[in-house]
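Ticket #4471: structure output looks truncated?

Reporter: J.K.
Steps to reproduce: submitted the chain below (111 residues) through the standard prediction queue, then opened the result file.
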Amino acid sequence: MIATSALAQGMGPRIVAVSIQGEIHPITVEIVGHAIERAQADNAAMLLVRINTPGGLLDATREIVQKLDACSVPVVTYVEPSGARGASAGFFVLEAGDVAAMAPGTNTGAS
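Returned output as attached by the reporter:
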C-alpha cells in the first residue's frame, strides 16, 4: 500500500508525504513521482518518504532513486514505524534522501 498526503500546520511550511509499504514495483515509481511533482508544484518545504519494505524490483528502485536525486525539494527518507524495515531496494531508497532517518526498532540494509 502506498499513499500520499500533504501536511500543513496553520500557516507553517508545507510537507508532502508519501509512504512505500510492501514490494517496490512500477506503480511505486508512479506514486513517488506524483508526490515529487506535487511537492515541487506546491513549493513544499520538504518531501517525506516513509519506508517499510522488504525490497523490490531493481529497475523500479533505480527510477525512484533517480527521481529523488533530481527533486528540487529537500527529501527526507524515514524507515518507520518501530519494527519496520528498509531492506534490499528499500535501503537504496533510504540512502537517496537528503536526510535519511530510522525510527527506533527498525532495520535496514542491502541484501
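Triage note (M.O.): checked the attachment and the full C-alpha cell line is present. The chain has a mean pLDDT of 92.
Status: closed, working as intended.
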